[in-house]
Write the structure tokens for this entry.
Amino acid sequence: MIVQSLRRMTQAGVIAILAAIPLLSLYAHYRSARSIDDPALMAGLRGEAITQHIHPFVESLDDPQGFLDSNKGTLWSMRLFGIDITDPLAAIEMTFATKSVYWPLILTAAIPVILTIILGKVFCSWICPAYVLFEVTGKLRRLLRFAEIQPGKLRFSHSNKYLFLFVGLGAALIAAAPLFALIYPPAVVSRAIHAWVFGTALMGMLILLGLIVAFELFVSPRWWCRTMCPGGALYGLLGWFRPVRIKLKSELCTACQECIPVCEAGINPITQSESIECDNCCACVRHCDDRALIYTIGLPIRSSSKQSRPSPQRAGRAAALLVLLMAPLVHSSPAWGHHILGLPHYSYKENYPQRPTLEYPATTGPYSVLLTSYPGIPVPGEPANLAFYIKNKTAREVYGMPITVRTLQTSTFGDNVTIMPPTTREPFDNEYKFHVTFPDDGEYIVELTLEVEGKTEIIPFLMVVGEPTATASIAVFSSFGMIILFVVLRAAQKKRARKNAQDINTHSQGACAATVKLHVLAEPVCGSHESQ
Amino acid sequence: MNVNRREFVKQSATITAMVGGGFVALGNGDAKGVASSNPLRPPGALPEDDFNSTCIRCMRCVDACPNHALISIPLGEPGGRSGTPTMQPRKAACMLCALEDGDYLKCTEACPSGALQLVSKQADDIQENVKIGEAEVDLDLCYSYNNWSCGACYRACPLAGEAMTIGAWERPIVHPDLCVGCGCCERSCIRYPHAIRVQARQS
């Protein structure tokens, strides 16, 4: 169906844009550094994409620098072809966090707001990249069920998300810092794609998304989108009076209920297609054989059936939310903006932003100890230069006595291996230098022994050299692989068993086999559906 | 709405998790509370607390920086600051867009939320409005103060002669009120550990 393929194309296009923008900005970095011809920088997949595709394309434009300047950002706030687009949730949350109204930002949220008022929650079903991820998770659940492993079917109330929007904005108001910006999945996915292209840290984001995916896979189907997403809640409220909505022609409906299991929003399209939960994703329209569910364009709401009206609880919550939305407009004094909960101010390591590639700080007594390594990233098998710098920060005095250092290689099983026996050095130019050759990739302990105020102190520094295969990640990945293998094997086995049964059926009874298979594949239609 | 016990437990658990998770994510659960410096912020940034609440974590400035100097603080760092931009001058310093076309510093031009105020590339505007931090020399580490002669930082300084002057044996002298904190000196320091560091402003 054409709407469905349009939707898939939009989703793919959005993800492509999210990957293209960081590539363009990387290209802009290299372009202004005049290093586009540097083979060392342009190695690998990223470099290939830049030299093969981005470079010829951008340079063929009339104004390359202007084009590069007009595409920036992530889905949270983006400049696309020179047009600023901001997620309405970002604008509202920033208004709450700062308790002041900054119109230049709020006006950039106009495009999505207007689109949502007309088209409903289409941001979710047509644009959001996290929605794609969770749709795939839903498909994986189908695979699980096909292999006759029953994933959990815990259902939560759909109104939780309005509550979460309320709580999160309240938290932003109190703590004067945005919360949704950190955990809102579209922003996180978008930032993860960005970090992946840039080659920066993305582990935290992957863990967050992985937790949600695992929860949806094994405990509660489509938990985030249906019951938690604050963005979905906001878009739902904005699209309450949308002219474009899916309506049921009740004279055509045969009540076959094919549309209930396919609904992405987890509602019953027969009764609730006009409620604020519907995200106009077209799944029910596509699966309706009777053409009873269709897109309609009409004037704002004249509900055709009683059930489709938003429930009183939901309306009450929405009203409370609107009052809360007004709060910063009325009270826009920044006086009580900060420190209400005493945010920890400076919780970074002492020299966090300035560390070079490898720098390990520690403190003992009045002394702060700094271990640095040259080269910045030690190469296994080549001598590395470890330098200790020990200083009394308050008295501004350098520690002058000799220190002893030994180096051990940690091993998962058995004792640690000594790489460098205890060695004592005098300071040279106020620092202590040791030459260590790390034999191979792994984790090492550099153990410093020094005397502080008459007592002997031992400080171990954990150093990671190269890319050791950490036991934890091996365990995680291998168990993940095992689970997938198990599920696939089981699915294959069940398929064969079913085929055998079907063959027997075909021989004995003939026609009814096809319907049996259809019911096995589709999500079980059961009376315990949450929304009914 | 009729609520049975199972529903009630589920609802209460969800709400508790939301509120608790919210505040943990904002970093109130950080136990260590080590007092240390602010992260270095891009040019034109508001004072730290205002910046932290105004920045919407969209990474546009990260995309805009032509020198790749801005990075976004990864998710999971305590303090509720993940996603906000910072710099590590040791890896890449702010070049004040010296070689770029355009009238404004690119990151300030890209910011949609006003967390970075627009700064033009006029020398006096930069001097007045850019205050990333100020450089500080560790006299025990700096080669020039320890019987050698170096001067690498002086040669890297974009405001050499104003923000940094040079004494006998090429000893660097930083003038904090004129230093914009671009970090070029820290980037260029030849000592390990580096003897000159940009300290973030404490406001």
Observations:
- The first strand of chain A starts at residue 72 and ends at 74.
- The radius of gyration of chain A is 30 Å.
